[in-house]
Amino acid sequence: MKSIIILGDGMADEPIEALGGKTPMQYADTPYMDKLAEIGVTGRMKTVADGFHPGSEVANMAVLGYDLPTVYEGRGVLEAASIGYDLKPGEMAMRCNLICVEGDILKNHSSGHITTEEADELIRFLNEQLGSDRVHFHTGVSYRHLLVVKGGNKRLDCTPPHDVPLHPFLPLMIKPEIPEAQETADLLNDLILKSQEILKDHPVNLRRIAVGKDPANSIWPWSPGYRPAMQTMQEMYGFKQGSVISAVDLI
């Protein structure tokens, strides 16, 4: 039997006054989704277990049938897999956003949706300036990249930058959840502050500022984890083949 899963990742929203108190989904013209609802069975189902933040990585893994308490290791490990990086034992992977800060404010999480070409130039520069035998940056797509730290402790309290636009960033920097993670938190916070110093005058950012675009003048690592023991979809369900179409590479 052939199956298709259509998941509206991030589609929920709040009512907007300018739309007459409707959400964007309520306001939008959606004839094909309406038809699917008309000929299908509708209802509600809780897919994300208690204790898990329903981000893209968590919600999609749950819908696909993974046991989150057993296999979930954060978004970073999925970013690593998506770009073909073979995460080694002892390595910690983190999602690493290129963000825009303005003064002490986290202006936006995407640096104005910087292009991959521009971002790659910045990531290579970060490796030249901040990379080491222990720390390495890997280019992903647009503002979404990968930071790998050897010997990092994943017990960290990190804030997803898309949750806190226009907030002061210093109170949101990485905190250890246990004393053993203090060194890792200090390392990552030092990388954040150093990245701001070296990125502010980079030619990529000067060009973006000159044409009225937000600069990518800081990194923001979050969602740490180690290499998970995950089965493939083929191993779980016996699928012979399948494919995924997604706007984000972590899926």
Automatic annotation (TrEMBL):
Question: In the UniProt record, does the keyword Isomerase occur?
Answer: yes
Pfam families per the UniProt record, alphabetical = Metalloenzyme, PhosphMutase
What keywords is this UniProt entry annotated with? Glycolysis, Isomerase
Catalysis: reaction(s): (2R)-2-phosphoglycerate = (2R)-3-phosphoglycerate
Give the main EC class.
Answer: isomerase
The protein's Enzyme Commission number: 5.4.2.-
* Domain Metalloenzyme residues, every copy: 1-241
Family listed: Belongs to the BPG-independent phosphoglycerate mutase family. A-PGAM subfamily.
What is this protein's name?
2,3-bisphosphoglycerate-independent phosphoglycerate mutase, archaeal form
Question: Could you tell me which species this protein originates from?
Answer: Parabacteroides johnsonii DSM 18315
Primary gene name: apgM
